[in-house]
Specification:
InterPro entries: FAD-bd, FAD/NAD-bd_sf, RIFMO-like. It comes from Actinomadura bangladeshensis. The chain has two domains: 2-69 and 99-172 and 263-344, FAD/NAD(P)-binding domain; 175-261 and 348-380, D-Amino Acid Oxidase, subunit A, domain 2 (D-Amino Acid Oxidase, Chain A, domain 2), CATH 3.30.9.10. Helix content is 37%, strand content 29%. It has helices at 12-23, 36-41, 50-58, 63-68, 88-92, 101-114, 230-241, 292-313, 317-320, 322-344, 352-367, 369-380; strands at residues 5-8, 28-31, 47-49, 70-72, 75-79, 82-86, 96-98, 118-120, 124-129, 134-139, 142-147, 150-153, 169-184, 194-198, 201-209, 212-219, 254-268, 271-272, 275-277, 283-284. It has an eight-stranded mixed beta sheet with strand order 6-5-14-15-16-13-17-20. The longest helix is centred in the last third of the chain and has 23 residues, at 322-344.
Length: 385
């Protein structure tokens, strides 16, 4: 077997890269270890920066996004019994859109298959060679080798790609809390996301559709989800979202529960020879800033441009600059996500002094046009290089 670009991982990063390369006449094969049904129903975040939605629209996979995505022009910071709106569009001219990652995957899979793309599910990569580039994988009881010009590692934090980068340097931070997330069949209680800071911990009110709510509670990293009955979850959410004006939280049947640890992680460099890391294979952000999916999209846009230049002109300038270009954006997003996380969560080890500092900072962000603008600029998304 041979192709120009072997893509390890059939999530949004790998599928979008394959689609972008196809539009430039570059062949690729996507190798995904899970089956199609699992990939298309894997629940992940879905807050899209305008840069992400622009790319999906411009490349012909935005039809359902435009029909079903929920465009937001602001968000709310809630603390001290009151809400404070950050008008994203007024401050930046940009919007964000709620559209679940699983829906993006469905759209991209359908488009790649309709275009004759080679997307192989249940194809487990067991080895790769970054110098004489090839990928070895198992599929249908057979072991095969895919020779290629370049390899894109889009296989996530636990994939095989990052360990194949020798002398990789990693930077990470573990947070002393996690998120208990729920999906509920109930109309959202808000039209814009609510980020709440409360003495009992952080809470987030998001949404998946006009009929489905997505909500989160700060819990300890070793929390036993079995101890959280539906009634306890709704009571705790109501407490943390409570306002002095009597705002009410809509309750309904909970259809899913999960606990997500909070981590910041960056690997450097994002390239070794002809292997390039993209998305979670190279970096992880805490979900507070809604940057994970958007960073993956920006990575593959940069990589697709670099590969297009290489095949069109023979120049390797953009390929040689790939890691540095992506890491500049990654570190900005890492800092913003860290800032949002520490601004809004309750650190169980924080002193009274530190908690007063946090409240002072929240007051400043809520009252300062400059501080709101900085938050809005980073949240809505910086330009993709």
């Amino acid at each position: 077997m041979r192709t120009q670009v072997a893509i390890i991982g059939g999530g949004p990063a790998g599928l979008l890269l394959s689609h972008l390369l196809h539009l430039q006449g570059i062949d690729s094969v996507v190798l995904e270890s899970r089956d199609r049904d699992y990939v298309e129903h894997r629940q992940r975040a879905g807050m899209l920066e305008q840069g992400t939605t622009d790319v999906l629209r411009e490349t012909g996979v935005g039809e359902r996004l435009d029909r079903e995505g929920l465009v937001h022009h602001g968000l709310e910071l809630r603390f001290g019994g009151a809400g404070h709106r950050v008008p994203l569009t007024d401050l930046t001219g940009r919007t964000v859109t709620v559209y679940a990652q699983t829906e993006i995957v469905k759209d991209l899979v359908a488009r790649r298959l309709a275009d004759g793309g080679d997307v192989r599910f249940e194809a487990e990569v067991v080895g790769l060679d970054a110098s004489a580039p090839s990928v070895t994988f198992r599929s249908g009881g057979e072991t095969r080798t895919l020779d290629c010009d370049y390899i894109a590692g889009c296989d996530g934090f636990h994939g095989v790609s990052r360990p194949a980068v020798p002398d990789v340097r990693t930077f990470e931070r573990e947070y002393p809390f996690a998120w208990l997330g729920i999906l509920a069949d109930v109309a959202p209680s808000t039209e814009e996301l609510i980020y709440a800071n409360h003495d009992r911990g952080f809470a987030l009110h998001s949404l998946r559709s006009p009929q489905v709510s997505r909500l989160y509670l700060q819990v300890s990293p070793d929390e036993d989800i079995a101890k959280w009955s539906d009634a306890r979850i709704w009571d705790e959410l109501a407490t943390r979202f409570a306002t002095d004006d009597g705002w009410k939280l809509h309750e309904g049947p909970i259809t899913g529960k999960s606990i997500t640890p909070m981590r910041s992680f960056v690997a450097e460099p994002l390239r070794h020879d002809r292997l390039f890391l993209a998305g979670d294979a190279g970096h992880i952000v805490p979900p507070t800033g809604a940057k994970g999916l958007n960073l993956a999209v920006s990575d593959v846009i940069v990589l697709a441009r670099a590969l297009s230049e290489r095949y069109a002109s023979g120049s390797q300038t953009l390929l040689d600059g790939y890691s540095d270009a992506c890491l500049r954006r990654v570190w900005r997003a890492e800092h913003f996500s860290y800032w949002m996380t520490t601004l809004l969560h309750v650190d169980p080890a924080a002193s009274d002094f530190e908690r007063r500092l946090q409240r002072s900072h929240l007051d400043y962000v809520a009252s300062s046009e400059a501080a709101k603008t900085s938050l809005a600029e980073n949240y809505a998304g910086l330009p993709i290089l």
